[in-house]
Design brief:
heterodimer; A: alpha/beta; nine-stranded mixed β-sheet; 13 strands; 27% helix; globular; B: alpha/beta; Rossmann fold; five-stranded parallel β-sheet; 18 strands; elongated
């Protein structure tokens, strides 16, 4: 099976994000970046499918130069080769604009399966895989926790709301959006890290994949979120704060 | 025709709660143009849903009815709603931001040459749509700029569902043309992941734990706090994914929705997937080392500090207060 896994480099989970002077993006200068969490699960699912059924895992990522470190990490974990769609203006593209780039690059590879993470931890659109399927003319399923190969295609376990699940059968080729937590993530081995340096990383300039359509929704302004409740912040040492909170739980909230 | 349309979802034969919130959002948009919204129900037997929807604050209910629309498939819904949109040319199409909508609305938008502005939390004049960025640490304001219809989905709990029943709206039926061969996926019956033995929904006091606890061995700190308070223990998704607590204790969009008297969140940053499951709690207390964690935006009381110091101290303080 030839599997394409789409990964995105995003700010690290606990990074302190600041709005930049344009008010339309975040200050990137001092940020640490990492692989988007659900994309890491998509990669893991792809690697496990390859181990069971053979084939090839190709990593596909759209992003600026810095995304190369995250791509190398995926190669170190066991992906065979990588394609980077280079673009510095991804933030000006909407979900359709980015999916167009990825779908165009993926099509050139004629994959059996395309996996994406469910949602990015930065913009959080959660649409890339579904739009790619539409643009590639392939069936899709989202919120997938597990993939089993069958004679006619694949059976996937889809998460529904409130603790329910469902199995779905799909023919191949297909696109799946992978939910976090369906399996355990592996770490890159020293050998893997060493090998990754020699694996193929092909770069495609975004302009080679067709002109960007005008976005249908423009991110005009980034602001700090509005508080939904007024919060009494309790300060002091851990012991003082704990004592003060216990008082409030007893006399204000009345739950003690 | 044009105007504002709102898609409603079926939850066990009734219109789902978040669908009523979507009607409220559609009415905000409709008030900017002057006309009442049209509600849309989709399926193979939509009569009862349509009747329920017709009593709400809408001008009309459109049934998109076809035997291939049940059970739900992304292919079936995308084909059917696209055909309806081509006939009716709505300016705005409002969806509830449910798992099902997330599965097909982006494809529908792409087929129409536009995008879905997803998970909207507020609608301003213009209209401007607000949605969360960076896991709720920032907000983004989006302006639609395309020529086609504008598709948005609204976050659970972000808009207040109208309680008022306005009367009986007109009901129309649209029959899409769907060929069975165009539905490429075969969905199975929904099933529960595990036997549900804990009903967090009826718990009065909940102590919930998140990623900040770092290791399974540290959970006893939080369990001690819960037993001192007489509270049920709950968790955010990563804790259950790791198998540290059973999935039946998970709160959030993929777990249970709770609204206890007290929800004490320990080491939970407050990603939206968690917040939708607990923000209706009467009193929310957050203990987190990161002062900018989004959990503080919904908290009534907050302590910024190291949970490994604060939690044991709090357990002692509660025991003392109870003594």
């Amino acid at each position: 099976m030839k599997i394409i896994v789409c990964i995105k480099q995003v700010p690290e989970r606990d990074a302190q994000v600041r709005i930049d002077s344009s008010g339309k993006w975040i200050e990137e200068a001092d940020l640490q970046f990492a692989m988007n969490e659900s994309d890491a699960y998509a990669l893991e699912e792809a690697l496990q499918l390859k181990e069971k059924h053979g084939g090839e895992v190709v990593v596909l990522s759209a992003g600026p130069e810095r995304a190369g470190t995250t791509i190398r990490e995926a190669l170190a974990k066991g992906a065979d080769r990588a394609i980077q769609v280079e673009s510095d203006d991804l933030n000006q593209r909407d979900a359709l604009g980015v999916a167009q780039l990825l779908a165009a690059a993926a099509k050139q590879e004629s994959p059996d399966l395309v996996l994406t993470g469910l949602q990015s931890d930065d913009l959080g659109y959660g649409q890339t895989g579904v739009i790619m399927a539409e643009l590639m003319g392939l069936p899709h399923a989202s919120l997938i926790l597990n993939v089993e190969k069958t004679d006619g295609g694949i059976t996937v376990k889809r998460e529904l709301e409130e603790g329910w699940f469902q199995n779905i059968e799909l023919p191949l080729p297909a696109v799946l959006m992978i939910q976090s937590g369906g399996t355990k993530l592996r770490y890159a081995t020293l050998m893997g890290i060493k090998k990754a340096k020699t694996k193929e990383l092909r770069k495609i300039n975004a302009t080679e994949l067709g002109a960007a359509a005008a976005p249908a929704a423009i991110l005009e302004k980034i602001t700090l979120p509005q508080k939904q409740r007024s919060t009494q912040m309790i300060s002091g040492t851990a012991k003082e704060a704990a004592a003060s909170l216990a008082e409030k739980l007893k006399f204000e909230v009345r739950v003690i | 025709m044009s105007g504002v349309y709102v898609i409603l979802e079926d939850r066990g034969g009734r219109v789902s709660r978040i669908s009523f919130e979507a009607i409220a959002a559609a009415n905000i948009l409709a008030s900017q143009s002057g006309a009442k919204p049209t509600a849309i129900v989709v399926g193979s037997q939509t009569e009862a849903l349509a009747t329920q929807a017709a009593a709400k604050d809408v001008a009309r209910v459109a049934r998109i009815e076809h035997h291939l629309l049940s059970p739900y498939t992304a292919d079936g819904y995308t084909i059917a709603i696209e055909q309806f949109i081509r006939v009716e040319s709505p300016d705005y199409l409002v969806f509830p931001h449910s798992y099902q909508v997330r599965d097909y609305a982006p494809a529908l938008a792409a087929r129409l040459g536009c995008v879905l502005v997803g998970d909207v939390t507020a609608i301003g004049d213009g209209p401007i749509f607000t949605r969360q960025l960076m896991q709720g640490r920032l907000s983004g304001n989006y302006k639609p700029s395309g020529s086609g219809p504008c598709l948005i989905s609204v976050q659970s709990g972000a808009f207040r569902a109208e309680a008022a029943e306005s009367g009986a709206a007109e009901i129309t039926t649209f029959t899409p043309n769907i060929e069975a061969s165009r539905i490429r996926t075969k969905p199975g019956e929904p099933f529960r992941g595990s036997a549900q033995t804990v009903d967090l929904g009826s718990a009065q006091l909940i102590v919930a734990v998140g990623r900040g606890i770092r290791e399974a061995d540290n959970l006893s700190l939080v369990q001690d706090l819960a037993s001192a308070l007489g509270a049920e223990i709950a968790a955010s998704r990563p804790i259950c994914d790791n198998g540290w607590l059973p999935i039946e204790r998970q709160v959030g969009s993929s777990g249970q929705t709770v609204a206890p008297k007290l929800y004490l969140a320990v080491g939970i940053s407050g990603a939206i997937q968690h917040l939708v499951g607990m923000k209706g709690s009467q009193c929310i207390v957050a203990i987190n080392k990161d002062a900018e964690a989004p959990i503080f935006e919904v908290a009534d009381y907050g302590i910024v500090g190291d949970l490994f110091e604060v939690v044991p101290a709090l357990t002692e303080a509660i025991k003392t207060a109870k003594a």
